[in-house]
Each structure stands twice: as C-alpha cells, then as structure tokens.
Amino acid sequence: MVTRRILCAIDLSDFTPTVLAYAVALGRLFKADVSALHVFADWMPPADGSTYPHWMLELPQARAAIKEA
User: CA 62, CA 53: separation in Å to the nearest integer?
Assistant: First the structure.
C-alpha cells in the first residue's frame, strides 16, 4: 500500500506547528499530498465522572471550561 494523501488534523493549539512539521516531513518522505484540517468541539458532553477523568474536574480552569459547555 502506497501513501498518497496525509490528513493532518489541527486545533491551533501550541502543538500545531510541531504536528504540521511532522505531516510535511512525512509528505515529503512518501511524496504524498498533505491536507490540514482545523478541528474544534462545538459540543461537549455533560460534566460527570462518566465522560471526564475525575482529576480534570479538580482543576479550576478545566472544571470551569467543562461546566460552561
């Protein structure tokens, strides 16, 4: 199987430049087209123990962001 296309999902976080650099390097290696796709969550599941690890709800910033959604 030959890789012809690489889809690189990005969220514009601090990791985005590194992720894109790896995708481009793989694209060059395999002579493949690279497409970047910006992804974001427009819906968050309810904040309870079944959807989030318990420790996330312990962090004030994470708890506030989870409960806002």
Answer: 11
Mean pLDDT of 6-19: 90
pTM here is 0.57
Specify whether the CB–CB gap between 23 and 36 falls below 8 A.
Answer: yes
pLDDT of res. 3: 82
CB atoms within 10 A of CB 23: 19
Asked if the model's pLDDT at residue 49 lies above 80, the reply is no
Give residue 41's Cα distance to chain centre.
10
In sequence order, the 6+-apart residues with CB closer than 8 A to the CB of 69 are 41, 43, 44, 47
> Residue 10 contacts by C-beta under 8 Å, 6 or more apart in sequence?
16, 19, 20, 36, 37, 38, 39
CA 59/CA 56 separation, integer angstroms: 6
